[in-house]
Amino acid sequence: MLDSFLVRLRRLYYQVRFGILEKVPAFKESMAAGQMAKKRGDWQAALESFSLAIRARPDSIGARLQQGHAFKELGRLAEAETAYRSAVKLDPSSVAPHIHLGHALKLLGRRSEAADAYARAVSVAPRDEVARNELIALGLREKLSTDHYGDTAIANGVRYVNDEIDRLRVAVRDLSRAATFPPQAWHDFRRAFPPLFPANVPVKRPVCVILDARGARPSYVRASLTSLLDQSSSEWRAVVLADTSVREHSVGSLEKVDPRIGFFDTVPLLEWGSMDVLIIHAGLILTSSALDWFSAAGGDEPIALYTDHDHCVHISGGIGGHWRWPALQDAPGKYDLRSNPIPPALVYSVSPHSDTTIDLIAAGNLDPRLHLLCRLEAGERVGQIPLVLASRLVEPTADGPPVVESLPPAAETMVSSEFRIRVVVPTRDQAGLLESCVRSLERTAARPELLSVVILDNRSVEPVTLELLHRLEAEGSTRVLVADEPFNWSRFNNLGSEGAQEEILVFANNDLEMLSAGWDDRLRILLADEGVGAVGARLLYPDRTLQHVGIILGAISGRPVHEGRAAGPGEGGPLARWRRTREAAAVTGAFLAVRNSVFLHVGGFNERLTIAYNDVDFCLRVRSAGLSVVFASDIEAIHHESKTRGYANAQEKIAWDDAEFRDLCHIWGREALVDPIANPHWTFAEQRSFDGLQPSSRSLKVRTDIVSNP
What we know:
- It is built from 24 helices and 24 strands.
- Helix 6 (95-107) runs antiparallel to helix 7 (111-124).
- It is of the alpha/beta class.
- Strand 6 and strand 7 form a beta hairpin.
- It is flat.
- It has 3 domains: 14-143, Tetratricopeptide repeat domain (Serine Threonine Protein Phosphatase 5, Tetratricopeptide repeat), CATH 1.25.40.10; 190-408, Spore Coat Polysaccharide Biosynthesis Protein SpsA, Chain A (Alpha-Beta Complex); 412-678, Spore Coat Polysaccharide Biosynthesis Protein SpsA, Chain A.
């Protein structure tokens, strides 16, 4: 009561003295005028108004702070310091005057005094972020007393926030799982995630669509042409190559309906430099935004593009169809394209076109796979858009999608070379497994005289193993090196390859049993291809279930996994990928072949990665060197996984694996976490590869050059 009475009495005194006797404007009026001047940037006028406000009410902290701000903006720092100090004196328990005094002192170069001002602000308001940060920025964290750091309430708050973040992570993971469609629900997935074209993305130039309708049913030709008429882009023309029976059918009247459509018996001479070219076959239905996607994604450099597609079964009596059998393609790879049973259904060539494309069109070769393959083998750019932009019509009676035969390897890779092969096998005891490994490699080799084996003996003690090593070495084709040191898979394989004169190195685990006859000639053929850097094999468990058919990066919790693990021996995976030779992001070191020159070029195995992820790291370096990694489905072996080293304590094994995975990520960053080859629509479960479907990013990112740009 007394304090309130004294405040009112003091303000009455100021009003009589300044407002009535000295004719000073009212306090509120001066403060309002000062704020208006601040907004205009007129700091001199603001200073005058705030000074009048101080005369009207000398005890106003706000007016003195504003006066200090005006002095500071005018460069009158000493006067700003005086104004702020007067505000501090009026109310030492207010944090703002201390902070602004600290700012002024810092500008005056009086660092120590500024720190004292910030420290007083912290003592007044321990949780004031500005004052604490200023002290820390000055390198004076010690100015924060023990009462003002390590605050229990703050620590509990941080812990609460971290707990909430963890709960959100779990929720996002659960939502992701809930949003994942089973592969059998492709129709529902396709309806849920149509490939909508992004807004405000500029499309490029016109496109000529070459529709191969030779020998096609008129209804299939009509389906393709009406999908063109329904395009959101109008910048196209259609060249329909058709037999007389099709041209004379009612579908031929569409060239009268729309002048952009023309029917021809051969490809007409066109000005190829003026437009892009899309090649499709009758019965392929484009989504309404397909041309926009291709045109925008093509860029300004020559490139051949392809995309995913599925199959549309027409339902009799209905107005729509049922989407089935998605053909979700890998990123560009010539081995994948040659062996793919459902290859890309279209090819989009960005102008100016390569001689390869023009020659194929002129010759009437309109197979999209052939165009893509020829471009790849000519060293030209090929890219994939991971979106389903087309559907191929199939008959209601079809029990599966139409498949095509694999193309034979290129002629120059068909001839087996005279490359010699060195097999490097680290081992410790386990004589039975080791002898089975060596004998099976020799027995199934087509050219055993060109095969040598180097065994790294890592502290074997069993008499039967020592006797076996002595016997193998006595036979002449095997050399034993002593590795009397702690186990390091990378180091042992590097030691075993030192001084090699052989053209091919094979790194094999001692628990491997080769099944494929002629495996060595198969390696010679693959590694005679100068674009191939490393080759892996199809590995089985003893019960013949799959153990390894390539490695997928980032599949589960960011980790690489063996795709196909535990699948039945008859399972082929999407697009029969587990039964055919194709490119892979990485292959396991349990059987890994490489040219000696490539091994030396990339520096061998990383010896810091002693047990895990050394094979993945090696494959990443091979691809960074501009070479591909190939999974060879026709080199098959049994792998008795982990029988040699045994199983470590579970927690220790997890901790070790985590540490080596962190090392891999430190080296490679995002490249270790995202697979550059497998289609991004697929998801993976702990015990099952390609377990579900998820929408891929609806961006214009094109997956190209899987070797050097993962």
